[in-house]
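User: Run a structure prediction on this.
Assistant: Running it now.
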Amino acid sequence: MLNLLTGALLLSLLHAAIPNHWAPVLAVARAERWPLRRAVGVTMVAGAAHVLSTVLLGLGLGLLGWRLSARFSQFSGVAAPALLVVIGLVYAFSGAGHSHPDVGAGPVLVRPRGRVVLGLAATMFLAPCLEIQTFFLAAGTRGPLALALLMTTYLVVSIGAMSALVAVAYTGLRRFNLTSLARYERRFTGAVLVLVGVAGFFVDW
């Protein structure tokens, strides 16, 4: 289980760092002249919507993994790690990373705050991250408690990292350049999936 949690932690940090996850909120916050506290708060709301849609998909896959492992004992020890390796290779060689609708592009008109927040949250909800889903499936083979632990890790790390990045960028401390990270996102994601899958063949989930 430790390798799954480690992989989920790495993927959560990686995907949260992709500018498409937090830059739109930052752009709207600056256009609307929100204070830092409000910008971070809206980031948490949008991030929660994004995580919610991802977790809802993951819950279904996790329950599927639980049922498969109950019927087929080899699924947990062989099929789940193999699936991670295969999907990891597919991601690594499938080109550029995934993207979300760039709601922060172009001029931002000043609108009622509630509509702006709702629009950001809806946009993020409709664009769940699919890369983490294989981890949910594998965690499901360990039972509901393991699945809940993985989902909690993903939720806390993703929302926390997105909020921290908005706070840092908002205050002007932008000595790091994460834009180029999106170019190699699928390779990094694939590498994490493959490493966790390979580890699953040698150590217990």
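The radius of gyration is 18 Å.
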